[in-house]
Design goal:
single chain, 18% strand, 14 strands, alpha/beta, two-stranded parallel ribbon, TIM Barrel, 34% helix, 10-stranded mixed beta sheet, binds S-adenosyl-L-homocysteine
């Protein structure tokens, strides 16, 4: 990439209008360029066919469109598609398309690598290298929308921020991307169909509530006992459950949106009655439901999925306590596309 050229998608519509005005051109050209970039998603200035040729050349001289490229696309036996996505600086992230009978869900990444070090997650083995830009997050969604139309004959219906990275550690860019995804000038998707999944940074959960976001919130809980949670998610030491709980109560008061807790049950870690009791108590702090996620092994055998007796214990005890619980089976395991398996295995960096 030519370093002197500027990323055109870093500019707001108003800024683009001003650029044209300052160049002695008409401001509405800014609107046209903005529409080509965000609504039509073109990859080159050449494709902006309602602009005069000289204008397209001027843009090409000074700006660049850093569109992502799908390096490798893998298809699972169950229809899941995993994309290894090359960024403009050569780094890689992964994003996944998950089809069901009625929906297509995009699972997108928010960072290259991750800084959180959860001991059961493959992404944690990569160090965090950088935050994704709003347009790099947006492009993952657009690419999956196109794949959904091409392979399943329907547009993308849902988005989950459950790919690589911790979305709240890239707060501004993730919110900007969601803004573009939901805006009529972008993809026009409903925010209610978007779920942000976080390990739980209390002050940023509160900030989201203050910013009146309209998307849904999922929290990767995995244990409601501090010592256990810290042993598998070291980040819990810094942000203990009492602070998380307070932030979630604040979230619910402000948004009236119920919280989803993601939870894996591991053998010998959180498979006892006391673990379920702690979870039930935690669930009572704010309206919530529990997704029991199947564990996807990440090769060193340190963690093992609990046996079915433990899972049944969780299910029955939660149900008896009046808490909604669903069991989610993983998709795309054969291509390492399931939760926690995203680690750029297929492609060398
Ligand atoms: N950092 C965010 C989003 C990425 S992880 C978060 O923590 O929520 C998406 C989900 O996959 C999280 O619930 C995470 O705890 C879970 N996960 C990570 N590794 C996993 C594994 N090996 N098997 C099953 N789920 C896993």
């Amino acid at each position: 990439m030519n370093q002197s050229k500027r990323d055109i998608r870093a500019f707001t519509k108003e800024e683009l209008r001003r650029i044209f005005e300052e160049n002695g051109d008409q401001a509405f050209r800014g609107n046209q360029v903005y529409e080509w970039l965000w609504q039509k998603g073109v990859h080159s200035f050449e494709a902006m066919t309602n602009l005069p040729k000289a204008t397209r050349e001027m843009l090409d001289k000074h700006f660049v469109i850093n569109h992502i490229k799908v390096d490798v696309m893998q298809r699972s036996d169950d229809g899941t598609i995993k994309n290894a996505v090359r960024l403009h600086d050569g780094l890689l992230v992964e994003s996944v398309l998950i089809p069901t009978d009625t929906r297509t869900t995009a699972c997108v990444s928010s960072q290259v690598g991750c800084s959180l070090n959860c001991s059961f997650c493959a992404t944690a083995r990569l160090k965090r290298m950088r935050n994704l830009l709003p347009d790099e997050i947006f492009d993952q969604v657009r690419v999956i929308d196109e794949q959904s139309k091409a392979f399943f004959g329907r547009p993308l219906s849902n988005i989950v921020f459950m790919g690589m990275g911790e979305p709240l550690m890239n707060y501004n860019n993730v919110l900007k991307a969601i803004d573009k995804i939901t805006s009529a000038e972008g993809l026009g998707m409903s925010a209610k169909r978007i779920t942000l999944s976080t390990s739980g940074v209390p002050k940023l959960i509160k900030k989201m509530a203050d910013d009146e976001v309209k998307f849904k919130l999922a929290v990767s809980l995995h244990s409601a006992i501090d010592s256990v949670r810290t042993s598998i998610m070291p980040f819990n030491e810094q942000f203990p459950l009492s602070e998380l709980r307070e932030a979630l109560q604040y979230w619910y008061q402000k948004t009236k949106n119920r919280i989803t807790y993601e939870y894996v049950v591991w053998k010998g870690i959180n498979d006892q009655r006391k673990d379920v009791e702690a979870l039930i108590k935690f669930c009572k702090f704010a309206p919530s439901k529990v997704n029991l996620i199947e564990y996807n092994p990440i090769d060193d055998g340190e963690f093992q999925q609990a046996d079915s007796r433990a899972l049944t214990l969780y299910q029955t005890m939660l149900e008896e306590a009046g808490i909604t619980v669903t069991v989610r089976h993983s998709r795309g395991k054969d291509i390492d596309a399931a939760c926690g398996q995203l680690a750029n295995k297929t492609t060398k960096n």
